[in-house]
Write a structure and sequence with these properties.
hydrolase, TIM Barrel, GH, 7-stranded parallel beta sheet, Glycosyl hydrolase, 12 strands, single chain, hydrolase activity, alpha/beta
Amino acid sequence: MRFGVNYTPSVGWFYHWLDFDLDDVRADLDSIAALGLDHVRVFPLWPVFQPNRALVRPKAVDQLLSMVDAAAERGLDVAVDGLQGHLSSFDFRPSWTLTWHRRNMFTDPEVVDGQAHYLRTLTEALRDRPNFLGMTLGNEVNQFSDKPHPDPDPVSAAGAESWLRRLLDVCAEADPRGFHSHCEYDAVWFQDGHPFTPAQAARIGAATAVHSWVFNGTAQQYGSNSVATVRHAEYQVELATGWARDPDRPVWLQEVGAPSPHIPVESAADFTGQTLDNALTCGNLWGVTWWCSHDVNRSLVDFPELEYGLGLLTSGRENKPAGLRVAETIQEWRARPTEPAVRGTALVLDVGDEDTAPNRSTCAPGGQFFDAWAALAQQGVRAAVVLASRAGDTPYLAARGITELVHPEDVR
């Protein structure tokens, strides 16, 4: 089991790449390692690293390598996201994809070639670092493909899959041993018609990445301390497991946090502890990477209010209650690892065609499937998820330890 954090620099946020200071990075990593965490996920800013389609700045790559080396000195492994992409409500795309050079980032051959060049360059530079875990293609880049983005780059489901496979192949060619993956925000699981699909998320790449945010309607509809809210991450991990062809495919809870005011500040530590305890009951969980390491400094403006206080530490590198709760959970788990829950009961999911999942909104907060899973959770059941197409597959069910199937319409 891996426990890590998404590294948000305490000085300058991700704009620190413009004025990179390794001493600040080292101090941040010291405060992260002190919590007992074992890895960080880091975010090069795409337009800073590749300002021209043919230019990946060597100095920027060297700065990334120095960050990875500093992490190694503190016992921290590093996962690297490539295409940034989208971070905390801000978009970062290079000028060669915008305005006068406006081109679709998923379908334009030259843009995709440029992305491949960028990812190959980073992966080849990183592959010999012993603490390099692998590449993620980019952070929630699916948000560029569809509503509610104000200027989307439309792509079909087939086009999205082609894009994912092309770029993951580039990473694998550059570093065959790497733990290379992709990640999407939860439209992939919950939004009908979204071109990035659950099948892609759960069947392409080394692991299935889950980003669990209860500001998606869960906390608003069910309450900040409800079972549906504190078990939301567990629900998404089990949903991801249900979509996988391989019953043992790892699921990476890659982002999860306690957003205020949806989770009151005074409840953040309790929510954090309950979320972790529930997620750790999932048998396929590879690890948890909390969002995020350090608060955004209030001297920076225009962030949504909830983004300022998501850190486990303040921007002054002081521990917050949620950070201390994470440290306690890690210490307890390492002293006495808990066995995953036996999930003998599975809720059957039918969203139509598996490739496009046209009715996946049933899985979203307020949907019939979500409500049925939450109702079972309220009754104390730790339910698995099984696709309707696998409900009659006896060897598959046996491999997952499932002995009882329940349909959403039968849950009271």
